[in-house]
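User: Fold this, then the next.

Assistant: Folding the first:
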Amino acid sequence: MVKLSVVVPFYNVQTYVPETLRSLSANARKDFEFLLVDDCSTDGTPELLRRAERELPGAVLLRHDKNGGLATARNTGLDASRGEYITYLDGDDWVAPGYYERLLATVEGLACDFVRTDHVQFTGKTRTVHRVPVGPRGVVLKPRETILPADKTTSVDYAYAWAGIYHRRLADRGLLHFTDGLRTAEDRPWIWRLHREAESFAAVGLLGIFYRRGVASSLTQIGDVRQLDFIRAFDQVVEETAADREGELFLLKAVRTYLAIISHHLAGKERFEPAVARKMRTMSAAAMKRLPQDVLREALNSMDLDRSTQLRRLRRRQGASGKAAA
């Protein structure tokens, strides 16, 4: 029986693949499997993964004929997985030796649906610890009860899929799949659905996963049209949250988070290609128009002056001209 499935998508990360694979080798166990998903890489990544298929214990190589993006690649690995527990890793990140064995022991000891973990973020030689924004540690909680408050960073804002481990029963209920085709913010609808519909979870301070920032091929570093999928992702968050049995309770949090992400992208518009920046403003203004207007007003009133002014200005321009100004 496979105890743990680790789903690892790869796309054009040949520089980092060897370190990622070495870290998986240092975590190998007879009842662990590593689902290596090549998302139609065009560099040296496929050859490195073919070698891993032969040499890495538990490796299962899966290939896409065309690039589908991170969400689709994760779904491919999830659909092929056999483990009682499931976790994720990105192809340019790595884990400490023995980390997955400790993570598995933690979730089995707590006997909950899923566990969320702290992680180490590193850029160059700089390393910083990022913690799950949940107060009680090692205590089984109800996920729904950690979504709020609306004006604070909470568990749904810590959306990293790889910072945790999940029982197979969640996959059987459809809670671990990502929205197919989302190129960015794919983890936002996923984390919200998980917190609304799973029954139990815990946050722990276990460190051992290392998240690499500043990778040139990462979508966080690329200002093309794929970045605009955050709008589709948050439209889904708002729609699904509004349909929830406690939608009125959670909707302000969902809308406020959506606005904060729009504001973040507006402030960093220099990262985008000019045409994409214009489209981002237009789509963001249209998104604000789609939101429940009473909740939108409440969310704007609850934000700091700089962000609320920026967003109100964009909203007025949309209302006055029917399109967002460039």
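Now the next one, as you asked:
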Amino acid sequence: MAALGWLTPRRRSATARSVLAGEASAEAARKSSQEAQEAQEAPKVDDQEPEFPVIGDDRAAAFFDLDNTVMQGAALFHFGRGLYKRKFFETRDLARFAWQQAWFRLAGVEDPEHMQEARDSALSIVKGHRVAELETIGEEIYDEYMADRIWPGTRALAQAHLDAGQKVWLVTAAPVEIAQVIARRLGLTGALGTVAESVEGVYTGKLVGEPLHGPAKAEAVRALAAAEGLDLSRCAAYSDSHNDIPMLSLVGHPYAINPDAKLRKHAREKDWRLRDYRTGRKAAKVGIPAAAGVGAVAGGTAAAIALSRRRR
């Protein structure tokens, strides 16, 4: 599937297509109060730190990656489960998505081949469907598969920016329509995501530019900041992945959230702030929620067996 996971190209430097994807996403730019548990898990500011975020700074904003930063797992794969339930594709495709999701959760990083495959198949699945139809389905899928996977700690960070009077955007390679649903449900300002081409409200099966991933995310943030009159040196960005170092490097307050090994190393070298909301030694090591670990392994193993039998 791939209109849902238009994902990671191998290029790392910003290209004309990255700029186009970023600008397109910029153009395309729930919970009310947090309960006691969220409040308890809210990050504590060290005594030596100045107060942050700064209340009333209207030239500051916050940018949050989605997968494994705000939400456990990949939005694309949760969306795929919802589409399968609605007969958008067949069982063999679901097995592939299950294996890709298991890999993502066990490894804690995106595999380029898995993500490219997901992107291509997703684009073909949504081709010919109306944008409004996918937006409505996205609302249902959020309730079914995503709402219970929001990290309370990261949600509290986003709320702190909102309480300070700042705008907060999601920045993700997931389809912008799905990203906007999640942002709206979380009470955020909006979302930057991968833009799929549509003509008269119908998906063509193509992208505008390229997936909003890596350098393209940085270009989207740069474009949005220019349009909004933001000072990036006063802004914050949050991510779990080393692929988002370009975006994190743009802002004056970069945070590594549930970081993969490469981002953790880079963040320590650059003296960036780190937060890890995963629990359990194993979860901290491989990047999966402790409570979901057994299920992810079991589901991934079953999917792998199904795939291997099919390929013999």
